[in-house]
Amino acid sequence: GEQVEQRPPHLSVPEGDSAVIICTYTDSATAYFYWYKQEPGAGLQLLMSVFSNVDRKEEQGLTVLLNKKDKQLSLNLTAAHPGDSAVYFCAVSAGGYQNFYFGKGTSLTVIP
Amino acid sequence: NAGVIQTPRHKVTGKGQEATLWCEPISGHSAVFWYRQTIVQGLEFLTYFRNQAPIDDSGMPKERFSAQMPNQSHSTLKIQSTQPQDSAVYLCASSLCWGGAPETLYFGSGTRLTVL
């Protein structure tokens, strides 16, 4: 079955710096890609979703890159601020009736 | 749109007691997923319903855990004879289905279960 690896597990950056989180997956049939943010005591909030025909997507200071050849998905937070401190998860799905598979999460701390 | 609603937010049970967790999906969403979240294991898939029918329960522990979706407005996860290792945050998510297949998952805030 699908295996999703996410790195790093912990990331600390100064305010204003960028933060990069990377996920790799194994199933070449994977077609849907997601990034979620989880703040303490809350559920997972969808940040961005990307379909496999997109290599790059930017929204509100976030950039998602998809490298299908290397089966790698990345999230880049440009100019991070303390409000970005949270746990970030990637998720993938092959679509259809297939399940969603999650990475283990990255705990991001943005230092003021 | 109130989002996915999970109740209770916190539940404390004694070892051996039963716990029932509730989930109200977003109106119009026909797929409901249950996940368990712990620090050690991360997010673990438990089970998934589509149009109230169970589709995949491969993540459900075979004993003590059961899930139902009696109508399109709520799903329940029941844990019988709770054990300390069941302590976790249980997350429910719902999704629209296009052509019968689930799309993006939207999560509730979770129920934190503590078994003493």
Describe the structure.
The complex is a heterodimer of chains A (112) and B (116). Helix content of chain A is 0%, strand content 57%. Chain A is mainly beta and 112 residues long. In chain A, the strands form two sheets. In chain A, strands 2, 4, 5, 9, 10 and 11 form a six-stranded mixed sheet that branches. Chain A has a five-stranded antiparallel sheet with strand order 1-3-8-7-6, with no helix packed on it. Chain B has strands at residues 5-7, 10-13, 19-24, 31-38, 42-50, 53-56, 65-71, 74-79, 88-95, 97-98, 101-102, 106-107, 111-115. By secondary structure, chain B is an all-beta fold. In chain B, strands 2, 4, 5, 6, 9, 12 and 13 form a seven-stranded mixed sheet that branches.
Main sheet: strands, sense, barrel of chain A = 6 strands, mixed
The Cα radius of gyration of chain B reads 13 Å
* Helix-strand makeup class of chain B: mainly beta
Model regions low in confidence, pLDDT < 50 over at least 5 residues of chain B: none
- State Rg of chain A: 13 Å
Largest sheet of chain B: 7 strands, mixed
State the order of secondary-structure elements of chain A, H for helix, E for strand: EEEEEEEEEEE
Report a brief summary of the structure.
The complex is a heterodimer of chains A (112) and B (116). Chain A has strands at residues 4-7, 10-14, 19-25, 32-38, 44-51, 56-59, 62-67, 72-77, 86-93, 100-102, 106-111. Chain A has 112 residues and is mainly β.
Give short descriptive properties of this protein.
heterodimer, A: 112 residues, mainly beta, 6-stranded mixed β-sheet, 5-stranded antiparallel β-sheet, 57% strand, globular, B: 116 residues, 7-stranded mixed β-sheet, 4-stranded antiparallel β-sheet, 13 strands
